[in-house]
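Memo to structure team: turn this sequence into structure tokens by end of day. - J.P.
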Amino acid sequence: MTITSKPELGIALIGHAFMGATHSHAWRTAPRAFDLPLEPRMTVVCGRDGEATAAAAERLGWEESSTDWREVLTRDDIDVVDICTPGHTHAEIAVAALEAGKHVLCEKPLANSIAEAEQMTLAAELAASRGVRAMVGFTYRRVPAIQLARQLVAEGRIGEIRHVRAQYLQDWLLDPEAPLSWRLDKKLAGSGALGDIGSHIVDLVQFITGEHLETVTGALRTFVTERPVQAASGGFTGRAGTERGPVTVDDAAVFLAELSGGGLGTFEATRFATGRKNAIRLEINGSRGALSFDFEDMNVLNVLDTGDDPHVQGFRRVVVTEPEHPYLTAWWPPGHGLGYDHGFVNQAADLVGAIASGQDPTPSFADALGIQRVLDAVERSSQDRRSWVSVPGARFAAPAHVPA
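Reply from structure team:
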């Protein structure tokens, strides 16, 4: 138990795989990087397999483990429930946690359907009236260069938004013998590249521009329709030509969008971009300037100002590591870049700050519901071969306060 003079905030983590590990790192690190008003206490981690969950608790720094998340919600020493499970479980866990009076951090996408997302949003709004907070883990918002881009747009530095281009490119499914996982099962994941990584670029565009996507037209593709079935031992059986199962989600998604401010957007999300591991690329063109960002160079924001002298006009490479930049007073001297994990630490700090101040954190469940509606409209456009589909009830909240 950490000895501290600050009030403690008991954390329960549900799920301990890839996202659970990143969130664990964030909860360990946030109170050491930031001067938080509350002290997060890594109380319990939950998983389905008792032995594996106990091992995860020891490895990741949790005080204890459990295989019953429902029992955890009854505990007085738990204040926050952090949900890092597959999408089909989000609604049940989040609604139950909010009704039990626990603050909730839920990984994206919020749910597997609009109906589930609406149920979760309603539960979050009812909980907020009792002082219980809910936030969704669109973590790339917490990259300092993304925060700076949002600030520059809000200040009018690039003028009226005319075009946005957004890509999220990966290649981890390129091998047709890569095994099936829950991410390739629509019942568990809801969708494939569209929801898993496309949701991130939709959120980033709306966050940076302060606008929302009003209408979309798109196409989805599944390039490899069957894959080897994962064996119980953790291996897979496909290379020897044994059991295979269907892939029921998309491998790639492309779509066009009309923004609420009148601009146009192009979006691409794929797990088949050969040679790209985690490339998030954004370019925003305005009437007075432009911004460009690539997560493969995540500490840099490229900025163009049309007011510059034409002899030297062009994209300026801004290294976003100065203490004046968002979040950077908590980290290293100028020029010492941050990495993937720092976004999760910044996210944890934002949530703790919001809980302590009694403010609703962002992105909210309502924000994530809006993104769910965009994804649904893209999927309907692809299925029905329609030209354009309207996004109903789109709304967007202002960004959260950035801690010094």
